[in-house]
C-alpha cells in the first residue's frame, strides 16, 4: 500500500510495504546555500533557512555545500550534510491557502538541492545517488522539521501540516565529495532498501498500528540516531505476544513464569518493564 506524497498521512494499520518506484535520472535545477542570520525569522530567532542560489561549480564536502551553515545542531553535520526537497510540493502548499501562499516557493524549506524526478515516495533510506561527475550521496533520514517553519511561513500550522502531510523532504550524507554544478545529472546507483521510501518511514513511525517485523526492520535501517531512536521506542512500546516456556515453583503459592516472544524477532533486552501491563490467557493456544 502506498500513500500519495501530497496527502495527509492517515492513522492507519501498516503490515506491508510495497517497493518504491525507481526514479529516472534527474537534473540539478538549483544549488542553494546560506549563512546563519540572527533575527532572520523575527525577534531573537536565529536561522540559516534563507539560502541563495548558486550556479556552480561549487564544492560539496562531507559536511555539505561550501558556504552553507546551520543554526541548530539538529541540522547539518555529516549525517545531514545536504537537504533535498521536492519542488512539486510547493503548488500543493499554495493550494492549501496558507496566510501568505507566495512564501511557498522553491528554496523556502531551506533545501540545498532542487532536482527533477525525485520525491518522498520514490527516494529510499540508504539510496546512493551520483551527482555530477564525482559526488556520491546517501539518503540518511526524512527531514525532522522544527518549530521555525511556523515563523518562516508566518503560519502557526506550518509545522503541523508538514508533519501530517509527510511533505518534509530528506537529508543525505556525502559519501564522496566533489564539485557540483547547475544542470548536473543525478542518478540512482544503489538501492538496498527498496520498501523503505522516505514517505514509508514516516508512515511506519506515525501509523496507528504497525506489524512488529516492520518496526524491527525499521530499527536496522542506516538512518540517523534521531530516527533510529524513534523507531526503537515504537518497537519497545508496541504490544507483543509472548508464550510460556517455563514455570517453576519458587515458594508456596508463588510460581516463576518465563515467557518468550511468539514472533520470530530479535529484540534487544525484551524484558517486561516495572509496572508493565500484561494480559494472560490460560488454556490451549487457539
TrEMBL record:
Segments forming domain MOSC: 43-189
Pfam families, sorted: MOSC
Region of interest (Disordered), residue spans: 1-22
Composition skew (Polar residues), residue ranges: 1-10
Top-rank taxon: Eukaryota
Gene3D superfamilies the record matches: PK beta-barrel domain-like
GO molecular function annotations of the record: catalytic activity; molybdenum ion binding; pyridoxal phosphate binding
Name this protein carries in UniProt: Phthalate 4 5-dioxygenase oxygenase reductase subunit
